[in-house]
Backbone:
């Protein structure tokens, strides 16, 4: 009874006495202490240094000067790596331009082309030139600009050339200030001033007049190759016999 009372009053001393009397219990306690210490050390090592766990399926971000994820830009300042790649992608993406292709092409219309496209690219996008196209009147190697009008004239059609492309001349813009042009007496140069009549068509009028006689009426000019009803509509107010 005296021993039990003493153990109750001094539990720590009683525990020490039991451990000393039982070597197996002492060994078990030592193993448990070593295991707990090892687990704690591993946990501390994983929380600091190279043992940081990253998300599965991702790669660690390269470190520069001890700062993880910083990528120096051209001026030496740090920039987030993902942002730098995005900026490069945007800069490398070519912009587009939109042009209106009209005139002697197979499929006139509005087309979207690369930023470095040329007049010939616009013509090809519109299906190419027709058999009536006057390719010599335009510069097919000229660079395009956004919103540009590309007009391919027909053979004998008078045009105004700007930046490698052409636009149809305004009706009556080339008429003589002296009044209507007499198609029976006008020279090649005089006829060349008429809208839609180029040097070749003007020469054809003079040749027809020499071979077949003078024109009895202004409608007779349509007997000349290259002058149809549409072109005559532009000319009838500017010519006479």
Residues:
């Amino acid at each position: 009874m005296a021993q039990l009372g003493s153990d109750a009053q001094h539990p720590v001393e009683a525990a020490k006495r039991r451990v000393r009397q039982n070597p197996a219990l002492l060994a078990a306690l030592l193993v448990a202490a070593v295991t707990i210490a090892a687990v704690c050390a591993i946990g501390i090592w994983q929380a600091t240094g190279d043992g940081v766990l990253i998300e599965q399926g991702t790669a660690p971000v390269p470190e520069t000067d001890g700062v993880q994820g910083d990528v120096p830009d051209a001026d030496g300042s740090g920039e987030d790596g993902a942002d730098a790649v995005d900026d490069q992608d945007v800069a490398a993406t070519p912009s587009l331009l939109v042009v209106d292709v009209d005139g002697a092409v197979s499929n006139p219309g509005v087309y979207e082309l690369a930023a470095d496209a040329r007049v010939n690219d616009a013509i090809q996008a519109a299906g190419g030139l027709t058999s009536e196209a006057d390719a010599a009147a335009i510069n097919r190697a000229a660079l395009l600009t956004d919103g540009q009008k590309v007009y391919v004239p027909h053979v004998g059609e008078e045009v105004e050339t700007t930046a490698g492309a052409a636009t149809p001349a305004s009706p009556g813009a080339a008429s003589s200030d002296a009044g209507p042009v007499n198609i029976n007496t006008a020279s090649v140069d005089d006829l060349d001033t008429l809208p839609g009549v180029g040097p070749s068509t003007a020469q054809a009028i003079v040749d027809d007049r020499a071979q077949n006689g003078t024109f009895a009426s202004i409608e007779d000019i349509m007997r000349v190759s290259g002058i149809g009803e549409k072109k005559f509509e532009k000319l009838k107010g500017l010519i006479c016999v």
Q: What stands out?
A: Residues 221 and 227 are 7 Å apart (CA to CA). The longest helix spans residues 23-47.
